[in-house]
Amino acid sequence: MTATVRVLVVDDEPLTAAAHAEYVERSPGFRAVATAVSGHTAVQAVQAARRAGRPVDLVLLDVNLPDMSGLDVARTLRARGESVDLLVITAHRDVATVREATTLGVVGYLIKPFTYAVFEQKLAAYRSYRSALGRAGAVGQAEVDRAFAALGSPVRPAAPKGLSAQTLAAVTELVRGGEWLSAGEVAERSTLSRVTARRYLEHLADRGLVRRRSRYGTPGRPELEYAWAG
């Protein structure tokens, strides 16, 4: 099972921070471990989590903070050797801010206001990025290209001819939870038949969006089970 992504939410408005934390909790594979309403608190939270052996994986970082800019938070974290990933969430639309954020190595830039659907796509794209670079050691060009492509494009798969986009989205959400599921189990959790569920799962597997493997230990021939690859 893919490890849960631990997220720190930083915003100067407590209600906004709480709302974004709720969005995080609604997104499969993510957990909001803390919120912060100032830059110094955010830096301290990242460092404390690392020292405790439960490091933050991703910081959702507002730019307008009461004590320092969110970009200054990014600089401070890098200067102190913190390699946590940063996703900027802000109302700033000026090119200078976007460019400055890019030079600091952020993995995304989300402009307020936004819907949950847009937010969830950003997190899912980030999860695919982490998955592509998730193993230790060297990587090939294809893995690097796949990782950066994940950050730049929505991950919701398009439905080919003969498949329903709505059904494909529903099956995608089921397998995104990190659990290995067979076609029969997907059918039980939806209104689909086993045959139809397998058809959608195989489409996702052929596109590299889910992994497949044989499940042993059940009567008869082993059946295939599937899990989200991102």
UniProtKB/TrEMBL annotation:
Keywords: Activator, Cytoplasm, DNA-binding, Phosphoprotein, Transcription, Transcription regulation, Two-component regulatory system. Signal peptide: none annotated. One of its GO terms (cellular component) is cytoplasm. Transmembrane segments: none annotated. It holds the Pfam family Response_reg. The keyword Transcription applies. One of its GO terms (molecular function) is DNA binding. Its main location: cytoplasm. The modification 4-aspartylphosphate is found at residue 62. This is Transcriptional regulatory protein.
